[in-house]
Amino acid sequence: MSASFGVFFRIAAGGGALLSGAAAMALAKGSPPHRVAGTVFALAMLTTAGSAVILAGFVRPTMPAFVEGLLAFYLAASAWATVLHRERTTNLADHAILFIGLGAAAAGVTIGLEAAHSPKGLKEGIPAAFFYAFAAIAALGAAFDLKVIAQGGIAGRNRITRHLWRMTTAFFLAVVNFFAGNGAKIFPAEIVRTKLLLVPVLITLALLIFWIIRVRLTNWYKEA
Known about the structure:
This protein is mostly helical.
């Protein structure tokens, strides 16, 4: 009973993350509906990723899921924290999140080295590059976290960019996991073979790139 409840709970949280994340991506940025969808997404991602870290790290050890879950939790937490407090301010949550990012980077490097030094260059069937890539994202985020803490906060375009790339990257990880990872098991084999499940992944990646370019390189932020 408890195992079934756990599976149902994770499916519900994951589904909520996908739906609310898609809504947040589609709705006008900064609008009340966008903020509600973003809050739901953040909570759903923290729940899903947090449970994945606990299960993969301590209940049924699975290192790829552990590293991915820790990175997703870090990205969602830091993205949400960015818009929860006022501009040009920091708090204890920012310091705690920094250490989560450093932990994700360290875990990725450590397990990546284990994979690289194994006979087949794999860790549970996953190549070292997988873990190194996640470690690089976490390390990049942690470096920016340290900069923000050192300067006493962030504001304006930089604040929106910080929130945006972390939240959309967390959403991208959720989409990849569902349509190209373990979630793909729920789809018929015929659909999986056609590669149609890669379409949502590519669309999400395109939207991630689009919004980063729009915020950083155009006047959209000032007009909004």
